[in-house]
């Protein structure tokens, strides 16, 4: 695989530095060095590794994003990475009322490597969907797995489909007529990275190769569409699994969230 520093530089240029790549098809605008994205039900702030702002000027930039979404009654996530500058960025986010969520790891792997993994699991049927009933079922699945209300994910996925069906592919894994896992692939125009999201699986159906098969199926789609790499913001639970499949850790990433 390409050197991790080169991959991170590529990610900076083609994802973090590109408005369309960060927006994932949602309405977006620039405010100075940051990209402000409005998804159904939430906001997102994407930034370069260094905005170039310091001190009071950085505080004002942060406050402006918070107030923009506060006026719309929406929570907003400011996405940070382990190499962001200045060093006191996260302290200033906290001071503005942003709360850190669980740290994840940015993982990357070549699509060509992952596309060769097994795509079938005995007793499990895989299919793609854009159906509203299936999206609602994905929300119920995630709510059960994470013991938190994930019903919002149905609207999020529906919004992404409306914004551009060619940008997202949603896969389901079913057994005995029941949804046991779901995952989706987010494709960014003009960027070499496609994103893996979802993958939550009912506890009794884990360790059977379902997660691996969903990765492989999405890798094949991404490869067919000309994407060089798959990218995942991995939890501590999924990171070891993904590294065994061939993913490489580039850095950490922590969402800072402000809620009205």
Automatic annotation (TrEMBL):
GO molecular function, one term: acyltransferase activity, transferring groups other than amino-acyl groups
N-acetyltransferase domain: residues covered: 124-260
Keyword Transferase attributed: yes
Family annotation (Gene3D superfamilies): 3.40.630.30
PROSITE patterns assigned: GNAT (PS51186)
Keyword Transferase: yes
UniProt keyword annotations, A-Z: Transferase
Protein name according to UniProt: Acetyltransferase (GNAT) family protein
